[in-house]
């Protein structure tokens, strides 16, 4: 998937880019910084982890929700996803259920692939521990993590920031394993300021 991202940059004619990824996307972004650091202007790793097995793991209820097979019928899938969002979401930010349902419905209509979740979980497990390799990364790095993330505990965010020399970290109180709308202004401001500084 990191190679796919580089392929996209090639297709767009971009030699360098600011690369931001959330959750598994953060793992992909980390891999990009490890493999071809000269192509990254900056790395922003959001609610992600290094793959170090010593880091705290997901809370049992969060992992159970993630591993529960998704229903294939549209309405049932939407209900299932909203239920999961209540488990892994942000206790410090109110859930706009109508907006969430609309987003889930659009995602279902755009590309519903029940096997995709299993493939992604296997990819995460197979990729292993990036922590030793992250020690060689010199790309300007910002780590963003929620204090209340039950799926990727906040300790994993601190571990990621510690792994990359000079990395900065932003902890958002009350944020879980999602990007709640109430946190958007702070996240956008942090990424905008960081990428501007990184670009010099």
Describe the protein in words.
With 200 residues, this protein is an alpha/beta fold. It has 2 domains: 2-56 and 128-199, Alpha/Beta hydrolase fold, catalytic domain (Rossmann fold), CATH 3.40.50.1820; 60-119, no CATH class. It is built from 9 helices and 4 strands, in the order H-E-H-E-H-H-H-H-H-E-H-E-H. It has helices at 2-12, 24-35, 60-67, 74-88, 97-110, 114-127, 131-134, 154-163, 184-199; strands spanning 17-22, 40-46, 141-146, 168-172. Strands 1-2-3-4 form a 4-stranded parallel sheet, with helices on both faces. The model has no long low-confidence stretch (mean pLDDT 95).
List keywords for this structure.
12% strand; four-stranded parallel sheet; 52% helix; globular
| Low-pLDDT segments | none
Q: Write out the CATH superfamily name of the largest domain.
A: Alpha/Beta hydrolase fold, catalytic domain
User: Helical residue percent?
Assistant: 40-55%
Quickly give the structural class: alpha/beta
